Automatic annotation (TrEMBL):
A Pfam short name: Fer4_18
Key word Transmembrane helix present: yes
Limits of the 4Fe-4S ferredoxin-type domain: 261-289
Name assigned to this protein: Iron-sulfur protein
Organism: Pseudomonas turukhanskensis
Keyword Transmembrane helix attached: yes
Transmembrane segments: 42-62, 89-110, 163-180, 200-217, 338-356
SUPFAM superfamilies documented for this protein: 4Fe-4S ferredoxins
């Protein structure tokens, strides 16, 4: 007889009891119950602030123009008094890296709270669910409406819901596209039906994307489309704060009257009301343990706390806890991993602020003419250049072009230029070789441009001078 690995049954299912599936497990639509509580209020106030920033910033003016605008046609990005150009895109890359690193640090500390409180997908999904409640009623009414045959009442309620969904989606699209097309111009052209094809196409696409994502796909985006949900768990450790159910306190679960002490009937504090499931936007049962579907929104905490209040039990049956706390230990907040993340993030932010402050507000770009060289009337070798000067400030400036270094060269052409705020100009210049003999066919020639009256504001560039060796 071969040796067998001993098996132990850790859970049994009573076949006489019906198997109860969560909405997510059943595959049907998730209808959430309305609720109140601390974390709902935090999410509500946070979303209100984000909405004010997102929808309001585009309408601010700064010195006669839109304060924040990505001018694609002019290839420049305005942020209040600063103008950024394609040459400054390295700063955008750095900012995105800092944001990603910050997200990782937050995940180590408190799990997936970004998803539950500030992710646009979650925030707009909550808005769309509120529209459902307004037009179709609370959870029970919506479930009945789903099961009811089509009638005038059902058509009216569904039409109102989808009309409001589309309205919210359109306003969202206007708010987003208003950062790339002047928002006042966009709204005016939309009202007068004079939108150009490009703006109309983007407006339609973004409206449709918002309507589909927040109205139809909802939690499916978080579960199947968002890469963050797939790799965020690898950043957890035993001290990461996660939404969790205290099974030691809650089990065995079961219904009872309020005046009955749970210990007297052999039960824990969980009364198996399923309120935590009914309020969950992803339709999971938090009592099943840590799950990929959980977005750490705290809705189940608010729902459970309200039930505990009604029953006269202590709050916190469901709450933000670490694995260490669930095991009876202590949560270590200032652990080396988190401190390292915070220190690295602080250094990155400091370096970004320094780079932003040290960013030159004057740019010089030199292009030599594709012709090799030419001989002028005085018999000197001459190269032609196109020098692009960019005034990145918000004031008019006068600049002087010159050659730097000790090379045997002379600069000819219009060397002084006046530029308006944010203006770009191409200056044609020629460089003449003044040496009587040519020692090299190719030499470096150094250009510089400085602000008249402020010579410390200068930038330099280098190009190549070509001459015939047999001269």
């Amino acid at each position: 007889m071969t040796d067998r690995i001993p098996a132990k049954i850790i859970e049994t299912i009573d076949p006489r009891q019906p198997l109860r599936l969560t909405p997510a497990q059943a595959g049907g639509p998730i209808h959430t119950r309305a609720f109140t509580g601390l974390y709902r209020n935090l999410r509500l106030y946070g979303a209100g602030l984000l909405f004010a920033i997102f929808f309001g910033t585009a309408w601010l003016n700064w010195e006669g123009r839109q304060a924040v605008l990505w001018d694609l046609s002019g290839q420049r990005f305005y942020i209040f008094g600063a103008t950024f150009w394609p040459q400054d895109f390295i700063l955008l890359s750095a900012l995105l890296i800092i944001a990603a690193f910050g997200l990782f640090a937050i995940t180590v500390f408190a799990g997936r709270v970004w998803c539950g409180y500030t992710c646009p997908q979650s925030v707009w999904t909550w808005v769309f669910m509120w529209v459902e409640k307004v037009t179709e009623g609370d959870r029970g009414q919506r479930i009945k409406l789903d099961a009811a045959p089509w009638s005038a009442n059902k058509v009216l309620r569904r039409s109102a819901k989808h009309a409001l969904w589309l309205g919210v989606s359109l306003v969202t699209a206007i708010g987003f596209i208003g950062y790339f097309v002047p928002v006042r111009q966009l709204v005016s052209e939309l009202v007068t039906f004079s939108l150009d094809s490009g703006s109309a196409t983007w407006l339609l696409l973004f409206t449709a994307a918002t309507y589909l994502n927040a109205g139809w796909l909802r939690e499916k985006v978080c579960l199947h489309m968002c890469p963050y949900s797939r790799f965020q768990s690898v950043m957890f450790d035993k001290d990461t704060l996660l939404v969790s159910y205290d099974a030691a306190r809650g089990e065995s679960r079961g219904p009872r009257r309020k005046e009955v002490a749970p210990q007297s009937v052999g039960l824990g504090d969980c009364i198996d009301c399923t309120m935590c499931v009914q309020v969950c936007p992803t339709g999971i049962d938090i009592r099943d343990g840590l799950q990929l579907d959980c977005i750490s929104c705290g809705a189940c905490i608010d729902a459970c706390d309200s039930v505990m209040d009604k029953m006269g039990y202590a709050r916190g049956l469901v709450g933000y806890r670490s694995e260490s706390a669930l095991a009876g230990g202590k949560t270590h907040y200032l652990r080396p991993r988190l401190v390292s993340y915070a220190a690295a993030l602080a250094l990155m932010i400091g370096a970004f602020v320094w780079a932003l402050d040290a960013r030159p507000l004057l740019s010089l770009d030199i292009t030599r003419d594709r012709g090799l060289f030419r001989e002028n009337s005085a018999g000197q070798i001459e190269n032609i250049y196109s020098v692009k000067v960019i005034n990145k400030t918000q004031q008019s400036r006068t600049y002087e072009l010159a050659l730097s270094g000790d090379g045997p060269f002379e600069l000819r052409g219009k060397t002084r230029v006046e530029l308006a705020p944010g203006e770009i100009t191409d200056v044609p210049l020629s460089v003449v070789l003044t040496a009587p003999q040519v020692t090299r066919t190719s030499q470096k020639v150094h250009f510089e441009v400085h602000e008249v009256g402020a010579p410390e504001n200068r930038v330099a560039g280098v190009s190549t001078f070509v001459a015939p060796l047999n001269r």
